[in-house]
Amino acid sequence: MSNLENFVVEASEAINFKLIRNRGDVNKLDDIFKPEMTHQSFGDSESIFGYRDLQINVYYSAGPLDIYYDKKYSKRVDDLSNNQGLKADNVDVITEVFSEGYYTNLDEFLDVMEKKEKTFAPMGERIHEFKTDDNRTFEIYLCESSTPNFQKYYTRLESFIFWYIDASSRIEHDEKWRFFVVFEKYKNEAGEDRYASVGYSSVYLYFCYPDKIRPRIAQFIILPPFQRKGIGSELLMTIYKHFQAKDNVCDITVEDASEDFQRLRNINDAKLLKNLDSFSPENLKNGFNTKMAQEAKDKFKINAKQSRIIYEILRLGITNTSNKNEYKAYRLEVKKRLNMNYLKEKRDLNRVISRGFKITADKKLSLPSTEENIESLEGMYRETEDYYRQVLEKV
Question: What is the pTM of this model?
Fold first, then answer.
């Protein structure tokens, strides 16, 4: 059978997400947003086989996030007379992430949406309110797993992570989870207050010996229609302020941070630490030290590993790269950290050899030579400096 490529589509192109506030939103095209990744439903190829003109529509009611699901296509490979036994992929696999169920009748979905939107309100404790540059109002609420009506709502909100957070999975609720949920407060066509879901972060409270806790940010997502408005920064700083005020908090950590989140974190942390005495320009030139790490931890609950990164970013900002000696001193300082893993592996290997154990050829080859490591280290440094400059532009 020819032209099979006409029956293959990128999953991210076929899927349309939309947040519905009123019936008129259904026909709008400018508020559709797409998934960033689809491999958790459609495999590493992130493609769907067997359909022409495939459209997968997933609509969420803006507040309570009830879901409408629909698929459309002009032709399916199964229905061709000469399909040679080929079968179309199961598109409905997408519904596996909708654990609270979904609607397939649009009118029924819209009727339920209109009914629920009248009574829907954020759950938990409101801990922050702010306005964006376009004068829209947002509120952040703190919830726990035991917060009334929260878990069912959160299951729907959490379904977004499969399309925007790599290797994501649902959490198992217990009393150590904290959830910071962002809502937009807006007026409907009748001038009545309504709430739209915007994003959230989940934080787990780990034990920190001997008598403290160590909050770890696990999931962090702002939905695409609300991005690039400063909402992510407001959410992160709200989490910081909440835990900074608690004496039993050791420091705040992050679980497997994505590149986008780490950039957001670095920008906000740099804005905080640049005002501390130990991070003053004259102290930055003297190198990273325990006083810096301690002050960052005491004032903002920023852990030592993260404060070291911020030190490097801020030091680059005050380094005269035209001064050969000054620039060299900075590069060596950064490379010293970047080279730590290589030096550790080399020490471990030498320790094993010194104790008389035999090392396989594969193990020896897995460790780069000194020359290879120097070349690799220079490449890593260049990438790191370029990245730091991007962060500094925002700071």
Answer: 0.90
